[in-house]
Amino acid sequence: MEFRILGPLEVAIDGAPVSIGGPKPRVLLAGLLLRPGAVVSTDRLVAAVWGDAPPNDPLGALRAYVSRLRAVLAPLQHGERLRYQAPGYVLAVADDELDATDFARLVTEARDRASVGAHGHAVELFDAALALWRGDPLAEFDCAQLNADITRLEDLRLDASEDRIEAMLQLGRGHEVVTELDALVRRFPERERLAAQLMRALYGSGRQAEALAVYRDLRRRLVDELGVEPSEAVRTVHRQLLEHDPTLVPAREPATNLPRPTTVFVGRDEEMRRISTLMRDARLVTLTGVGGVGKSRMALEVVAALDRSRFPDGVWLCEFDPLADGSPVSHVVATALRVRQRHGSTIEQSVIEYMRSRKLLLVLDNCEHVLDASARLAADVLAKCPGVVVLATSRELLGVHGEQVWRVPPLCVEDATTLFALRARTTQPDFPSDPETDGTVADICRRLDGLPLAIELAAARMRVMSAPELAQRLDDARLLTGRSRTVRPRHQSLVSAIDWSYRLLSEPEQQMFARQSVLPGGADLAAVHAVCAEPRASETETLDLLTALVDKSMVVATSSPGGTRYRVLETLRAYGRQRLPDSGPLARRHAEHFVDLAERAARGVQGPDERLWVERALPDVDNFRAAFEWALADRDIDLALRLVASLPEVLQVRIGYEAAAWAERALEVAPEDHPLFVAGVGAAARGAWFLGDFARARGLAARAGARVPAAGTARSGYPADVAADVALYEGDVDTALRYYESQVALARRDADPIRLSWTLYYVAICEAVRRTPERGLRAAGECLRVAEAIANPTATSMAHYALGLVLKKSDPRRALALFDEAASRASYVHNYWWQGVALMEAAATRAIHDDVAAAAGAFVDVLDHWDRTGDRTQQWLNLRYIIRLLVRLDAEQEALMLHHYLMAVGKVSPLRDHQAGGLLDGPDGPRSRAAAALGSAMPAVHAVRLARTRLSRAC
């Protein structure tokens, strides 16, 4: 049973709403739920239900309503749900039945994590707690007897919000909570802790003047209205602001994409200690062992116990499960690191270049089926990235010089029986612990060779049989102890365990399990239903089958921003593929579904629900890749072009340019008269433009001739737009401006607001680049109005950026606010390219008109942003801004070295000849040092490293 009081009163049984009746039984239940498990006096309940006008027989009337409640509330497993206990009534509520109890538990756990410095985990727990709130608690009731308890709940919510914000500040993420804090301070103007937090958040965002204004407003209010000064804690923050105390902006925790384990890890303490020791002395450690022995989980536990300060640039998990045998691994690594392919480099070279100057830990999981590619990557890392440590898991060693190998053994009997019992109790909470049962379980674990996966699969069966029955079934079927001349004994045991679990499934469950093997990386319910279900089955029937498979440990359900996803572990997925007699029809269903999803997402990201569609589509990159490869292999050019024409706005500005390469491959075999040929050209050309390969972008765009794609095409996928952007970046601004002005007229004629906002944006940008920003004000203003009318986050981000750019010189403070807003809106929808240009212009504006130290810190973030995304064109522009800032900081030597790096690659430097000429000739001067550096590596690597080092000292 579920009781919800963190919002309007709701009651449900197994998810179905329960009708409690009219206002009086509802207020009676609310009064009991506010004090669950405690005696609530009849006097208090009568006053809550009837107020000052009770009936002639209030106790009798109360008993009648109590009787009605008993009739609709589900009984407890043991004891009464609602009982009389003098002087009133007690409502028994289990720990997991009341949302307020769940809220209190999560908040307590969050505060415990925060108290030991685990602020990232604390934020996750606070978010989960606050997500339980659906509005004001029990807002439908207004009686004095309940108001005090309702106010207490509201205070707990506010306290939790403050604690969450504090954890965000400790993580160095104050810029993310400025808007939330500003609203809270306005709502609770005398709450000093909120004001102090807003001051710190604003300061950490480079907005010191606004932070000081918050203090002045608070002090004026307290003195004028209450006659008191702010507390010592608030005054301390004020002093720190004035003194630029560095402790106001904590160092950020190293980033990571490691999942948080959902089950207890059993045993292996000594092994973990020894592996950790190996990782202190070696830069490549490989955990090997048979399938199902627990290599992946062991790696995650070892990493979780390491000192993360050794890896200031993060700990990154790269899962190779979804890759086909022999596939390249670099795209997976690039996605994990959020690195994009750089101009003039392969994706492999881009990944290595990004890691070359960083200190991070790379976890390469499940390398055995991509062994050669994994070994090449590991060898390159060891040779070229001295600050990177690699922890790999594989059934075979990688065979790389310097590799340290640790063979993960099966669990000992004691740990194996503990694991079995823990997993059994997840489905059978009263699983017994007695000498007879423990002995039987130990025997089962021995015969399963101590393999964790086999043990977990077997333990899942405890919901339907006892341990002796399981042991007997193993004897009879001999499924877990079969022998093979060609398969190692322990591997044979695992295959038998899977086979045995598979045979215990019903026929529909077996069919659903096998069909899910065509979904690399898993999928959501809609995709599983579309691809794997019987033609006439309902989605509810598919969910029932998935629930059964999750219960039986054959499918894993995980939560993501886009909803729950269902995934078959790779070992089980390989087994499932063997159970499919013909996967061809399923592969077509798979491709058609994900092409349809890509098309719907392409439309969705141009509307107000952009974030929803992004978070729905991004987890399916592996499925998009599989769909494209199948379509191309089956010569279904229409399906391939539909996919690549849909992905520029969905993937390219968010995770990289792999899909642009798909578009080029599709164009090689597509007929030029295909309706989507031009959109495919636009997708390929835009990818080349993002990588800074302007010659290729221009050549690809020319393949479209004078043709334009159909209305609704991704805004960044018009071939002629790409050609105009190349002209703009190469200095031919007038050509780009004339083109976009003509496109504005066409967009107005066609009543296409998304196209209109895009073209108006570029008109404003061209005017700003021509140094006539006042002429771009009208276009920027209209762009913002159009974007806000369609409520698309990326469009509004672009519009804020355009308006900021044309106001940058005349109204820098307003421009700065516009850039910050643009970056925030782009970040909200994971649009990292638009976020990057907004962050860069904000940093440049701060460098001229704001706090120089804050600008230096902002530029460090922008350096890392473009280094990660691989956009070399934007990075060179960023370095021009940094040179100007270094001159202001009297860092002339570093500025001159960056000047020479720009000149070496044919880029324009902001330094004039007379500025750069003074220190060119000495044997140890900047030119000589730059030339020496350029002889050993690409200029970008040295330039970024030098800029980051010097700016870090400045901030």
Automatic annotation (TrEMBL):
Residue intervals of the OmpR/PhoB-type domain: 1-93
Highest rank taxon of the organism: Bacteria
Residue ranges of DNA binding: 1-93
Keywords (A to Z) from UniProt: DNA-binding
Name of the featured protein: BTAD domain-containing putative transcriptional regulator
Family from the record: Belongs to the AfsR/DnrI/RedD regulatory family.
Organism whose genome encodes this protein: Pseudonocardia yunnanensis
Pfam families linked: AAA_16, BTAD, HTH_77, Trans_reg_C
Annotated PANTHER family: HTH-TYPE TRANSCRIPTIONAL REGULATOR RV0890C-RELATED, REGULATOR-RELATED
